[in-house]
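hey m, so remember when u said the C-alpha cells were messed up on ur end? i reran from scratch. heres the input so u can diff it against urs
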Amino acid sequence: RLLAGRHPVRALVRDPSRVPHGNVEIVTGDFGRPDTLDAAMGGIDTVLLVSPAVPAQEIAVIDSAARQGVSHIVKVTSKASSDSPVDRRRGQAQIEAHLKTTGLAYTLLRSNAYMQNLLALAPMIRRTGGFVMSAGDGQVGMIDARDVAAVAAAVAAVPKEHAGQTYWLTGPSLISYADVARELSAALGHEVGYRRISPAEHRTAMIAAGVPEAVATSNAQAFGLIAEGDAAWLSDDVKSITGTPPRPLRSFIADHVTAFT
C-alpha cells in the first residue's frame, strides 16, 4: 500500500531469502541484536512496528529508533493493560509505556481480534466439520488484518497528522463464534458446528495440537475474556482514516473459502 502511494519503504527481515521480490529496500536484522537495528534505522523517518508483544524486543526497536533520529513510530497493538491476566496484553502495556517516555512522536493502532485467526480453525473444520472454542456467546468487533494494513499505511504516509493518537480498529459489526459458524455453513454449503468448551479445556486442546504452553495459556485467557464481553467493542476509525468501510466477515470468508474446503 505504501509503495502504491509512491512512498519509499525499507523492510527489516531476519532471512532475506524468504522475501518476495519487489521495490522494497531490504535490510537484514534481528530484534535481539541492537547493532543490526541501528544500521537498519539510518535515514528512516517513520517506523511501523508490527511484532508479537515481547517487551525486550520491541523496546530494543524503539530505543534504536530514538538513537538514530527516527521521528515517529506507528505501533500495531491490542487492548493493552498492565493488570490484565493475559500476558501479551501486559507486554503491550509495558511497551507502550516505554514508548511514551522516549519523546518520539507515536500513533497506536489498537486492533480488536483478527479475522485471519479464523484460518487456524480451518484444519479442524476440514477434518471434523466443526470447531471448538472457549469464547462462549461473547461478541467480537473482529477485523480483517488487511484493513489494519490500510490504516497503518495511511497513518505512516502522513504521520504528523496522527501524532499522539490512539485508534481503535474493528470490523463493521459485532460477531460471535456462532455467527462465524453460520457464515461458514452458508459459504461451504454444509453445516459447520460450533462446540463451546471451557478455557481450561481449550488450553489443553491447544497444547495437544502443538501450540506452545505459554501461548496456549494466553489464548485461553483471552477467549475466556471474550466470553465475558471483553471484545464487544466497535469504532468507526477504519472508515474515518481510510475513507473505506472495513470488510465484513462474509467478505473475509468468501476471499478465503478454499482454506476451509
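this time it looks ok to me. The mean pLDDT is 94. if urs says something different then somethings off w ur setup not the seq
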